Amino acid sequence: MSELSDLDLDAGFATRAIRTGHRRTPEGEHSEPVFATSSFVFQSAAEAAARFAGDLEGNIYSRFTNPTVRAFEERLASLEGGDCCVATASGMAAILATCMGLLKAGDRILSSRSLFGSTTMLFNKYLARFGIETHYVPLSDLDAWEAAIDARTRLLFCETPSNPLTEMVDLRRLAEIAHRRGCLLVVDNCFCTPALQRPLELGADIVIHSATKYLDGQGRCVGGAVVGDRKQVGEEVYGVLRTAGPTMSPFNAWVFLKGLETLELRMLAHSGAAAQLAEWLLTLPAVERVFYPGLAGHPQHALVGDQQRTGGGIVAFQVRGGQDAAWRVVDATRMISITANLGDAKTTITHPATTTHGRLTPEDRAKAGISDGLLRVAVGLEDVQDIQKDLARGLSAL
Question: Whole-structure pTM over 0.90, yes or no?
Fold first, then answer.
């Protein structure tokens, strides 16, 4: 049985992040094993038939049943407060599986304008081909959300905080709007993770993760997850995974299990360092604006402490001089990694307008507030003074 039984659901976050989901085998292993197998053996033809029919629980094929992947799913579902979780091959696969499982031609997505660039491309270019329309509104404007819902709107989608401007929305109020109008609320919780924010407790129906980011924590593997109830996620989204196969590998699931063990410690450390870096950036004349929820001047700062435990580990800032100046800052770094990934122990920096949001049209980037002078820093676990020193090489020269 699992190390934590149903009687232990009131265990603390850190305890569940370490103990949930592991069912020891007869070998008595202490660490979770990696079940590196494509298929599983049945005791009889009748048992095989019963498992395939769903009459008997058990492993069938690692595309949709694997003990290591299941351990990760159970652990993340516990941390998010969901009934179940479906692990996927990537964060984008998690979003795609959710949309394919819950939407049909003629349905409409109402989404925040502040999104990861690939999510926007998925909605605009690919889902649109199958008759699913997406309309966009400003993330924090609740009146705009309410006004834009129509009879075809099935799903509200948002990131909070958003990528890369760390804009936030009041999830309780947005959930009330969604449910009053008969819609589902889907929240991408990549930036906060359940260590800092639990959207399901605030009224959301489904939580999306790119496990690649903070859930891993060291930039080792690609994966995603969908957390929610047993009907929408456990049947509909799972059905897409079982049939279409955007599957998480057992090894990656094992890495994410190890990442979850230190998630709370890391997220608090990332957040503390990010807050220090944001305050420092405010003092520099080359910096026009700093975007960080923990700053008193952030438009939604009041939500920090209410729905978020801290400001998180992402800091964005705009430099004077546009793209040329932004690139000079990036190229002057010696320690910080120039990469579009985030959630790593290593601090990373990217220029969103030409990387994560580079496939958007200039008009869409402008609507989303992605200026040519904007930089995004995912603050790692190095000494904050060394991160500042590295950024100062470029900023002091502007």
Answer: yes
